[in-house]
Amino acid sequence: MNARIDDLIVTRWGARFQGRQFSCAIGRAGIGEKSGEGDNITPRGVWRLKQIWHRPDRVSMARETLPGFPITPGDVWSDDPKDNNYNAHRHAFGTYPFGHEAMRRPDPIYDLLAVTDFNWPDAVSGAGSAIFLHVWRKPRHPTAGCVAFDLSDLSYILANWRPWSRLIVR
Predict the structure, then answer these.
(1) Cα–Cα distance for residue pair 96/10, rounded to 1 Å
(2) Taking the model in full, what pTM does it have?
(3) pLDDT at 1 > cutoff 80
(4) pLDDT score recorded for residue 61
(5) What residues does 132 pair with on adjacent strands?
(6) Percentage helix, strand, coil, to 5, in the chain?
(7) pLDDT at residue 28 tops 80
(8) Is the pLDDT of residue 109 over 80?
(9) In Å, how far are 16, 20, 102, 133, 143 from 157, measured between CA atoms?
(10) Which of 13, 15, 42, 107 could be joined to 24 by an S-S link, Cβ 3.0–4.6 Å?
(11) Mean pLDDT score, 104-109
(12) SS3 for 102?
C-alpha cells in the first residue's frame, strides 16, 4: 500500500503526517491483530476518521474537517459486548446500565478525540471498541488500544485532516 503525504502513519516508533514527525502512544500490547475487547492492542490496518468530539469548555475547534460534536455531561461510549449499542456513543441520563467509557472526564485525555471506523459504525460485539485518536496522559504512556498524542499535535493533525486522509497503523 502506498501512503500519501496526507495519511497519518503510526508505528511503534511514532507517527508521520504531512511531512512532520510526531511522538505518540499506542496500546499496552503494541500494534497487531485485535483478539477482542480489552486486549490492549492498537489494531494494524487502514482506518478512516469519522467524527471529532471535543470539550468546548477546554478546547476550541476553529476548523472542523470532519463532523464535530461537543462532549457534554452524560456522554458515554459503550464498550460492553452485551449492550445492543456496543461501540457507539450514547447519552446516559443518570447511570448507564452497561460497561462504558465516560467521554466527559476530569483528566484531559478526551478533551479532543477522533473516532476511527475500526469496528464502527456496524460493530461486531466483542471485536473491540473505541479506537480513538485522543490526548495522551503523558508522553508515550500506553493506551488501552487507541493512538494518543500531545494536545497541540492532535489539534494540528485534526485541523489539517483531508477527506482522503487515512490512518495507517503498521
Answers:
(1) 33
(2) 0.95
(3) no
(4) 76
(5) 115
(6) 5, 30, 60
(7) yes
(8) yes
(9) 10, 10, 24, 10, 19
(10) 15
(11) 97
(12) strand
Grid coordinates representing 53 are 468530539
Residue corresponding to grid cell 500519501: 4
Q: Based on the number of CB atoms within 10 Å of its own CB, is 65 exposed (0-12), middle (13-18) or buried (19 or more)?
A: middle
Identify the DSSP state of 60: -
As a whole number of angstroms, the distance between CA 133 and CA 112 comes to 8
Residue appearing with cell numbers 476550541: 60
Which is more confident, 156 or 1?
A: 156
Query: Who's near 7: CB < 8 A, 6+ residues apart?
Result: 17, 165, 166, 167, 168
The beta-strand segments (E) located in 33-156 are: 42-43, 45-47, 49-54, 68-70, 75-78, 89-91, 100-102, 112-116, 132-135, 147-149
Backbone angles phi, psi at 17, to 5 degrees: -155, 125
Q: Identify the pLDDT of residue 62.
A: 65
58-95 pLDDT, tens per residue? 998 766 678 999 999 999 999 999 999 999 999 998 89
At a CB cut-off of 8 Å and minimum separation 6, what does 152 contact? none
Query: Hey, what's the cell of 119?
Result: 469496528
